[in-house]
């Protein structure tokens, strides 16, 4: 890659991974991603801000070589996850004078995961500063965005905030064509998907971290995934809305069907909700994109899982959906289940147990024996009425 300068003496040395389609063997990446890394040359010292996924180490090393700077003093490691820290061992070999600058929690992770030697660290504190000569790095701890050790770094003289995962997006871009978000409409959904998938379980602490960085004069926001922002108003306002307690007059309806009965139930129920003016996000769990489900959970006042009974319990894909809801800890206020059974089973009880810890009120499910008949459709209408009343109670209608 040719030299990409963010500003004088500040280089973008990150890597575009536009072909990656899955993160953590779980999260779809429809737009690929980038691992952003930045080299800052001060008058006395040089610092590298984060590294890249270990599969891309060679490209990072080449990008660094292209800058013509052959000495790195500090590697700032904001986060122990390997997509940012996985190249650190190779960097420490290539630049033997470098030390890793991080906090105590991240140091512990880096000693246990990439197995970095204890004597290659400088440990920093919240609010601490590190001088590069004519440039100053100020460290601000922002825990749980999205691991306990995460922090951000403010380059004081240039007013650049390096935020690592926080406020980023999985959106591949070609750095030589430009580093910045030029159209916020383009980045809105990738940023929301990213927030929903990895940040949303920590929304309470996200609000605190937004507050903590709110007074900083940021001219450039430089995350470690996705394009950079001029200023941070757009993305922090998005995060404020997504992490707030507010929900929409919306139902997430995620179902799986084996022989068609649960699908008839789900489609009827979708129609019943829509007739009552409720927006529905319908997902067939057979091929649903979990990023889309996570985004719907960022907004929906109610989530309903539809499942047939199999082996006396919920379908495993419905269990997966229930687990996802539980893991994402959404602000969803109401939950319910619709589904079918042939001869019996404990499908509803098992799903309700899984969803119990979410903290939402569980509305009486509708279970259908076999294929739905008139009485069952009436029960689905009654459930739609109950949900409408609940949403009215929240002031959403
Ligand atoms: Fe981009 Fe949590 O790593």
Give an account of the 3D structure.
With 397 residues, the chain is an alpha/beta fold. The protein has 12 helices and 24 strands. Helix 5 packs across helix 7. The chain binds MU-OXO-diiron (FEO).
Short characterization:
The chain is elongated. It is α/β, with parallel strands linked by helices and 397 residues long. It has helices at residues 57-67, 82-85, 88-94, 104-112, 184-199, 203-213, 233-243, 261-275, 290-297, 316-328, 347-355, 374-393, and strands spanning 4-7, 10-12, 15-17, 22-23, 27-28, 33-35, 38-41, 46-49, 74-76, 99-102, 121-123, 129-131, 136-141, 151-155, 160-164, 220-223, 229-230, 248-255, 279-284, 300-310, 313-314, 334-341, 361-362, 366-369.
